[in-house]
Amino acid sequence: MMNAGLYIHIPFCLKKCPYCDFFSITDLSLQPRFLDALTVEMHMAPKADGVFDTLYIGGGTPSVLDIKAIDKIIETAHRCFGILSSAEITLEVNPGTVNLEKLTEYRRSGVNRLNIGIQSFNSANLGFLGRIHSVKDAETAVKWAQKAGFENIGLDLIYGIPAQTKASWIKDLQSAVDFLPRHLSCYMLSFEPGTPMHNDLQNRVFMPLPEHQVCDLYETTVAFLSAHHFVQYEISNFAHEGVSRSNSQGFQSNRSRHNMKYWNFVPYIGLGPSAHSFIEPQRFWNHSSVKKYIRELSSGKLPRAQAESLTREQFMMEAIYLGLRQTKGMVVDALDKKFDVNFKAMHAETIADLEEKGLVKFSQNRCALTPKGMLFLDSIAVQFL
Ligand code: SF4
Q1: How far apart are CA 38 and CA 336, in angstroms?
Q2: Is 16's C-beta closer than 6 angstroms to any atom of ligand 1?
């Protein structure tokens, strides 16, 4: 039995970034009632079979909560879910909401992995993304995190921003690696329907970066980070795998242990508004409304919006898609066995064609995308479905 993961969604932000489609609200007055409801949900929620070895507090902006609230969440999670003492406990923070004291207290509360949403070290880019923090805030936040005793720090960056050049993106990457983080997530800016940025795009308020330039930035990312000892293990995620950084907080790898559960069908429980859970073969998720979430829990009900059992077809589709997102690829034998298929025989022609184009590599038991193939993840996955 693989260890399960626990995710807690904190649905508050000081301000909505125009590109973001994660569920969060800016009415902070609901915080006390949300925190009471979350405690109730932690007691009521299913616990999955097995032990929990990751806790990920994400959002929204968890660092808008005061220190005591984070401390209580972690303490209650330990009590209700029996989280292992060696667990990876990640907290997402926004540089505009932290100070040294807060970060020191988070460390003391048991947070041992910090994910800092930097997005860019360039003021114009931060302005375009509508972030609440400056470049200086971002740099100071990383320095404070190190001073507070965090060894395991991950930084999030975004590329593909209008007018971004290869040179300015390399500057961003260089600024990030100069801080010696353990982990980098580099996300391609996407324009999600329903977001203000998507509306602006449709109204031609700005011109997006041409696709070939975005592809070039992606390839630059992979090459630059590889040269700096960051191994790409998922389409957007890179872990430092050099030997020079000590790992005294007990981690065997700098990869996100929690996020890997999502891509490998390991059970996870999600708490908080909009959070998703998976306990094979069931997937279920909570209401995307803080008020409804509070109302349901105060009347003794789990705030579940919907649940579904994955059909064999859905399961297989996800196994292929999630497998291809990871650089290690799909384990073909396992796929064949689980779904009673012969993947290689079924897709012999497609595989040969994609191999010839340098998009896929098929070795022994694994089918994986090449770094170039990752750019075409969606269209390649469709060919295998
Ligand atoms: S701070 Fe993060 S979660 Fe909040 S709106 Fe911005 S991107 Fe979304």
Answers
A1: 40
A2: yes
Q: Residue 122: its pLDDT value, please?
A: 98
Question: Per-residue DSSP letters for 262-314?
Answer: HHTT--EEEESTT-EEEETTEEEEE-S-HHHHHHHHHTT---EEEEEEPPHHH
Ligand 1 nearest-atom number relative to CA 92: 2
Question: Is 21 close to ligand 1, i.e. is its CB under 6 Å away?
Answer: no
Residue 91 to residue 119: CA distance in whole angstroms: 16
Q: How many angstroms separate the CA atoms of 69 and 111, rounded? A: 13
The neighbouring-strand residues paired with 270 are 7
Q: What is the DSSP string of 132-153?
A: SS-HHHHHHHHHHHHHTT---E
Whether 17 is in the pocket of ligand 1, judged by its Cβ within 6 Å, is yes
pLDDT of res. 385: 79
* 220: its two tokens: 């630059």
Pairing of strands 183-188, 153-159: parallel
Please give the sequence-ordered ranges of beta strands (E in DSSP) within the chain, or none if there are none.
4-10, 52-59, 88-93, 113-119, 153-159, 183-188, 230-234, 237-240, 268-271, 276-279, 282-286, 304-309, 330-331, 360-363, 366-369
Residue nearest to atom 3 of ligand 1 (CA): 60
Beta strands in 160-259 (DSSP E): 183-188, 230-234, 237-240
189 C-alpha to center of ligand 1: Å?
A: 13
Residue ranges in the chain modelled with pLDDT below 50: 243-246, 249-250
What's the pLDDT score for residue 309? 96
pTM: 0.94
Cβ(60) – ligand 1 distance below 6 Å: yes
- Residue of 8, 9, 10, 20 with the most ligand 1 atoms within 8 Å of its CB, for mutation: 20
